[in-house]
Structures are given as structure tokens and as C-alpha cells.
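Input C-alpha cells:
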């Protein structure tokens, strides 16, 4: 038996049987079910209403062909996905990922987690996720545009401002959102909010680009203040990844007085003992779309190392994994602990393996789970939807202030839930329970059609 409750054990066995060969999805479901043990013990009404059985099965899962023509005139075919996981509290909401590793398991784990994350933001958004096994690396501008247009030609049959509102994720930024939105606009002759992460001036919200990274640091600052009477100021930090989330995590970390000394991309990591120069990283990654190894060629004293794993052996106070799922193994976690890490906060989705999380928690590391600590991106997406509905734009300062408040509330709601359900400070459990309860109450209230 993996669970104390035979009811949860039965649900998990059914999920395993229905979703064979989907390890990421099963990993995400198992973690949430483990967190729900004390809820099941207290809330027979939710058990009777079959809430959990319903939550682990997506409301809808769409898979589609994405044909496009490359620069050589050859037809290419990719596989697209959209999972609409749960709409009990609002339209499905969640990003689109373009990466060769995208498959049903990855999209379903992301969509499942998104349901709880969106609930934690306090905004009325359900959970969804999508993407494609298209690899944007090495593609020309024209190829990316034609691919995005083809992807949207099918996706638009399934989305809508009150139905499902995708956004960016790995491999999808303002450029890709622009091409997809353009195609939607051309084919529908409407300007409705079917995507967030649009460019400012084309319906986008100020501070959406920064939101996930900034939000992560607002969460860490609140956690340190509340639990340790401490702050980011003066801390040595490592940030994995060098994409959207990582870059703006570094920006806010530096603003708060921390020093980020290392970052990576999928080829290797850079170490700069004097602190990463973010303008150089932005030029390499946002403007040139080049490799991080360039950094060491441009910044005297900086080192480049092939391969990613070495980053976790660098001594730091705070580790912010901001690249991809399962990037921190048990071995990496042990290295961080041995070097005295104080905080690990997840910017990416599910970057720590279950074994790594156990090591952090057993050793008293303040551990912030993705659903809570990276919710800033989708929160500002929710604020973009809100501004679009009002036909109005808030200033950067207004959006940023709302983001900060939302992240502080997510920390406190997760912490309070961990206390109420008997494991004070276990934010994995607290975030899962707080996110779950809101959706569960809505599903119960709505009857069994969800
Ligand atoms: P980007 O595509 O902008 O950046 C991804 C970064 O991660 C790149 O530096 C990439 O390197 C690196 N990376 C990807 N795969 C691997 C790998 N297997 N090993 C090492 N490095 C890798 O994506 P985002 O910054 O948007 O997303 C990063 C994470 O944050 C994802 O888990 C995403 O789901 C999550 N997230 C994103 C949000 C958003 O609003 N964008 C919101 C909340 C969470 P390379 O360039 O070499 O591929
Ligand atoms: O994982 C995530 O929360 C995102 N990629 C952001 C989703 C969104 O709708 O802004």
C-alpha cells in the first residue's frame, strides 16, 4: 500500500491503470493524493461526492495534427495537444509548451497541477495546458510563424474567452503568442481575449513578462520574513534555466539585494562569482537566442561548464530551479543540503523529484512547491484577462502591486492549510490542500456534472 487510506489507494490504482506509460502525470497525481490524506479523514462529504475521482480525470483531452511547410518546401508534421482539466471555478487556463519532449504525459501533469495553482491565485480560472512536440531551436522566423499559424488553425476550435485561454510556457513567448493571436484574429474577425501573454500595446498586460520570476521572489521574501525573520538581501543564489522565468527571477533577486552566481541552459552552466550580469544574459537569450556558453566569452572571470548537473554542487543559500521537470534528483538535493542551502523555491513546474523533496523536507530546508511559488505568471495572465474585459490597462506599478499581494496571500494560505491539517510548514501539503479545497467546494456545489 502506498497510501494510508484505502480510498486514495484505490483512486491511485485506477489512475495508474488508465494512464500507463505516463510517468510525469502519475508523479503529479501521487503527490497531490498523498497530501489529501488528512482531508479525506476530515471531509466525508467530499468523499461521498466523488470529487477526487473526478479531479484526476481531465474533462477533455484533444490531440491533433499540425502540418506546416519548412523553408526547403518540405511538409513537416507535429503533434499538438490541449488538455482541459477542470473548469469548476472558471475557464480553462494554462500555457502552451513547444518542446520536443512534449507528449500526453507531460501535458497532463502540467494541466493537472495548473488546476490547483490557478485556484491558489484566488482568481476565477480553471486548469488547462497544451503544446506541441515542435522544436523552435534552429528554426527560421518564417518557419516559426507558419508553424504557429497551423497550430492555431486547429487550436481555435477548442478555445474561447469564456472557455479556455492559453498562454506561453517553455518555447512559447511573446513572439509565438503574437503569431498565434494574429492567426486567430484573421480567421475569427474578433479581438477577444483567447490568449494571454500578448505584447503590450496589442492587448497584453504590463508586467506579464516579468510575472513568474518576480512572483517567485515575492514568495521567497515572504516565506523568509515569516518563518525566519530573514530576507533575500545578502544571499548567494543559483538559478537553473535562462529563459523567461529564470531571467526575471534573477532580475528581482538582484533588486532585493541577493547575488545570483550561476545559471544554465540545456547545454551547460555559467558560474560568475561576482554575480551574473543580467544585461549580458538578456542580450544572449532574448535578443540573439544564442547559447549561454557565450556569457563566459563576453564576461572576464566567468566560467562555462559543459553539462548542467554541476550547478547543484555550487554552494548557495537559495536555489531556484527555473528550467524543467525533474531537474533536481536526490543526489543533487543532497549536494545542496550538504552545502547548507536554506531555501529551495520552484520556478519551473515539478523541477524536484519526489526523492529530492523528501531530502529537503527532512533536512529543514524551506521548500516552496511550484504550484504556489510559480503562480505569479498565471496570476498576471488572469489580470490580463481582467483588463481585456474592462477594455482598460493598469500601470506596471498597479499590476506589480497586485502580483505581490497575490504571492504573499498564496504563501499564507498554503502555510495556514499546512497548520490546519496537521503538518505545519509542509508547503507541499498546504498548497495542494488549499488549492484543492476551493475547486472541490465548487464541484460539490455544482452537482455531479463536473
Ligand atoms: P523558456 O523556454 O523561456 O526557458 C526554458 C529554459 O530551461 C531554457 O533556458 C532551456 O534551455 C532550459 N531547459 C529546458 N529543458 C532543459 C533541460 N532538459 N535541461 C536543462 N535546461 C533545460 O521557458 P520558461 O522560462 O517559460 O519556463 C521554464 C519553466 O517554468 C517550465 O517548467 C515552465 O513550465 C515553468 N513556468 C513558466 C511560466 C511562464 O509564464 N512562462 C509560468 C510558470 C511556470 P534551452 O534554451 O537550452 O532549451
Ligand atoms: O505554468 C504556468 O503557470 C504557465 N505556463 C502560465 C500559464 C498562463 O496561463 O499564464
Amino acid at each position: 500500500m502506498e497510501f494510508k487510506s484505502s480510498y486514495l489507494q484505490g483512486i491511485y490504482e485506477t489512475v495508474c491503470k488508465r494512464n500507463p506509460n505516463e510517468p510525469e502525470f502519475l508523479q503529479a497525481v501521487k503527490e497531490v493524493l498523498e497530501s489529501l490524506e488528512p482531508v479525506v479523514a476530515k471531509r466525508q462529504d467530499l468523499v461521498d461526492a466523488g470529487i477526487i475521482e473526478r479531479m484526476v480525470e481531465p474533462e477533455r483531452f484533444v490531440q491533433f495534427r499540425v502540418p506546416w511547410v519548412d523553408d526547403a518546401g518540405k511538409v513537416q508534421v507535429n503533434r499538438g495537444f490541449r488538455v482541459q482539466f477542470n473548469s469548476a471555478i472558471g475557464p480553462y487556463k494554462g500555457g502552451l509548451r513547444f518542446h520536443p519532449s512534449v507528449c500526453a504525459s507531460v501535458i497532463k501533469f502540467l494541466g493537472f497541477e495548473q488546476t490547483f495553482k490557478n485556484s491558489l491565485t484566488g482568481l476565477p480560472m480553471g486548469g488547462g495546458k497544451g503544446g506541441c512536440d515542435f522544436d523552435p531551436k534552429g528554426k527560421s522566423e518564417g518557419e516559426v510563424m507558419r508553424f504557429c499559424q497551423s497550430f492555431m488553425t486547429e487550436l481555435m476550435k477548442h478555445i474561447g474567452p469564456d472557455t479556455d485561454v492559453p498562454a506561453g510556457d517553455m518555447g512559447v513567448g511573446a513572439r509565438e503568442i503574437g503569431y498565434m493571436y494574429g492567426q486567430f484574429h484573421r480567421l475569427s474577425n474578433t479581438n477577444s481575449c483567447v490568449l494571454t501573454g500578448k505584447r503590450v500595446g496589442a492587448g497584453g498586460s504590463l508586467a506579464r513578462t516579468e510575472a513568474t520570476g518576480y512572483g517567485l521572489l515575492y514568495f521567497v521574501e515572504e516565506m523568509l520574513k515569516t518563518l525566519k525573520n530573514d530576507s533575500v538581501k545578502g544571499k548567494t543564489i543559483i538559478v537553473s534555466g535562462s529563459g523567461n522565468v529564470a531571467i526575471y527571477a534573477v532580475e528581482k533577486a538582484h533588486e532585493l539585494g541577493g547575488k545570483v552566481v550561476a545559471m544554465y541552459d540545456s547545454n551547460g552552466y555559467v558560474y560568475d562569482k561576482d554575480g551574473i550580469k543580467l544585461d549580458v544574459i538578456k542580450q544572449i537569450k532574448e535578443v540573439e537566442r544564442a547559447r549561454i556558453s557565450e556569457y563566459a566569452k563576453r564576461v572576464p572571470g566567468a566560467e562555462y561548464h559543459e553539462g548542467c548537473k554541476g550547478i547543484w554542487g555550487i554552494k548557495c543559500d537559495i536555489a531556484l530551479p527555473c528550467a524543467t521537470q525533474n531537474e533536481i534528483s536526490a543526489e543533487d538535493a543532497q549536494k545542496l543540503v550538504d552545502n547548507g542551502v536554506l531555501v529551495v523555491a520552484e520556478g519551473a513546474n515539478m523541477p524536484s523529484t519526489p526523492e529530492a523533496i523528501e531530502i529537503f523536507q527532512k533536512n529543514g530546508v524551506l521548500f516552496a512547491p511550484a504550484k504556489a511559488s510559480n503562480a505569479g505568471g498565471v496570476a498576471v495572465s488572469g489580470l490580463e484577462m481582467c483588463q481585456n474585459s474592462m477594455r482598460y490597462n493598469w500601470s506596471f506599478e498597479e499590476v506589480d502591486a497586485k502580483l505581490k499581494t497575490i504571492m504573499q496571500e498564496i504563501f499564507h494560505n498554503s502555510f495556514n492549510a499546512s497548520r490546519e491539517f496537521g503538518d505545519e510548514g509542509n508547503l507541499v501539503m498546504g498548497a495542494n490542500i488549499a488549492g484543492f479545497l476551493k475547486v472541490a467546494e465548487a464541484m460539490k456545489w455544482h452537482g455531479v456534472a463536473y
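The pocket of NDP (ligand 1) is lined by residues 95, 168-171, 212, 241-246, 264-267, 308, 322-324, 327, 347-349, 374, 377 (CB under 6 Å). The first strand starts at residue 60 and ends at 69.
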